[in-house]
Amino acid sequence: MSHAEREAFGVYVHWPFCLSKCPYCDFNSHVRHAPVDEARFVRAFAREIETTAARVPGREVTSIFLGGGTPSLMQPQTVGAVLDAIGKHWRVARDVEVTLEANPTSVEATRFRGYRTAGVNRVSLGVQALDDASLKALGRLHTAREALDAVAIARSAFDRYSFDLIYARPDQTPRMWADELKQAISEAAEHLSLYQLTIEEGTPFFGLHAAGKLQTPDEATSRALYDVTQEVCAREGLPAYEISNHARAGAECKHNLVYWRGEEYAGIGPGAHGRLDIDGIRHATATERRPEAWLLNVEERGHGVVTDDSLNSEERADEFLLMGLRLAEGIDPKRYAQLSGRKLDPHRIAMLREEGAIAVDADGRLRVTKSGFPVLDAVVADLAA
């Protein structure tokens, strides 16, 4: 069945805790030295799921993603309880994809079988690098050997698994990256997420970079690293299906496709975002980021939502464009016109085609080309103007 015939509906659940904070990370993650009261958090997750399901009843859940933070710090029975709560309040598709993000440490790998039993059928491992010096510089608590051992355990416990790597790291050459990537693909089987290191404000890396103590590759090297990524992955049968995500045909992450295709998803847990359709209006929701404050909110009023914006047709269409053009499959301009009430400007399309930044397929689909992807933001801005 094509994705058009069956409405996708994703549930994202955010577990906000980490053992330590990585110096490049600007996600909503928190380190707590006292043990986290998992039972209390599970009750709150279940309560927020119930409240959300009352707003969007009758959905069939096609994908669930447990992200963080570090969800693999949860006990398997905690994960099982969250999945049970989802199944209690919505129908769950028989072929639902249930992904859990995990750190590739030996401690967490011992829980993999338990997660499998709880209902997880895909793991995404935050490997980040395959050499120890880089891992240390990235503030990771595992070695390359330990990461590869965890990947092997994931391979034995799950039919589907993926891992992340960060490239454009200090002192990294295209040659080194090509070798590391080939090794990764030999371990990765079906899916890889490959992110260029970005220096985010408010992180320790930002301060170091500003002080000249952290050298990241210049623009030409960054571009060469990006090109190597595309070439090696395509040659090895894992082409990019999205700007930072590579998969064998049919092994794409269903949950991520929900975001990029502009479909509906519920955001559960501290700092989670959602997109819900209520009475024909698209709502953009976000919950309280601070875990303890979120917990008290849910216990008090059944949810932790702090923003709930109705998107107008223009905002809705811009978001569809922004997300959809990240995909190799591109977008259907007719869908854009339906959402926004106006067509994309044919002159702009013609200009961008001439520059080789976008292509229009025989069926009218619009997609960004290989040479357009490195300047994606500019292409999107041009089309949306």
Automatic annotation (TrEMBL):
Keywords: 4Fe-4S, Chaperone, Cytoplasm, Heme, Iron, Iron-sulfur, Metal-binding, S-adenosyl-L-methionine. Its main location: cytoplasm. Its cofactor is [4Fe-4S] cluster. GO terms for molecular function: 4 iron, 4 sulfur cluster binding; coproporphyrinogen oxidase activity; metal ion binding. Residues 3-239 form the Radical SAM core domain. GO terms for biological process: porphyrin-containing compound biosynthetic process. Probably acts as a heme chaperone, transferring heme to an unknown acceptor. Binds one molecule of heme per monomer, possibly covalently. Binds 1 [4Fe-4S] cluster. The cluster is coordinated with 3 cysteines and an exchangeable S-adenosyl-L-methionine. PANTHER family: COPROPORPHYRINIGEN III OXIDASE (PTHR13932), RADICAL S-ADENOSYL METHIONINE DOMAIN-CONTAINING PROTEIN 1, MITOCHONDRIAL (PTHR13932:SF5). Belongs to the anaerobic coproporphyrinogen-III oxidase family. HemW subfamily. This is Heme chaperone HemW.
